[in-house]
Amino acid sequence: MNDNKEKSPHILNASSNLLGICFIVLTSLKLLNQGSKTIIDEITLAAIILFMGSCIFSFLSLRSKTDFGENLENIADYMFIAGLLLLFVTTLLFSFNFIK
Is 17 within 8 Å of 49 (Cβ atoms)? Predict the structure, then answer.
């Protein structure tokens, strides 16, 4: 087993947790009718897509018996960090009142 192959369970766990949080945020915005007033729902949707992709690719990497699993794991890794960066930038913009 490669050293890289050991990242997939961690990526899957963390991205699925963040995916759940994004779903809660998006649902809360929709229930409170705040979705049309901010761009946070669109940003959250982009984060959901990235974390869902990360979950799928890390799962496929775990199931793969070939060296192609390493490529899938790298894709999952990049999608995960992109989702994290998106949430971080959104949090900064929201904290400094650039997004209301």
Answer: no
In sign, the C-alpha dihedral spanning 49, 14, 87, 61 is negative
Cα separation, 10 vs 93, in Å, equals 28
Percent above pLDDT 70 for the chain:
94
* 39 secondary structure, DSSP code: S
Overall size of the chain counted in residues: 100
Read off the pLDDT of residues 19-55 as tens digits, 9 standing for 90 and up.
999 999 889 888 888 777 778 889 999 999 999 999 9
- Report domain extents, the chain: 4-95
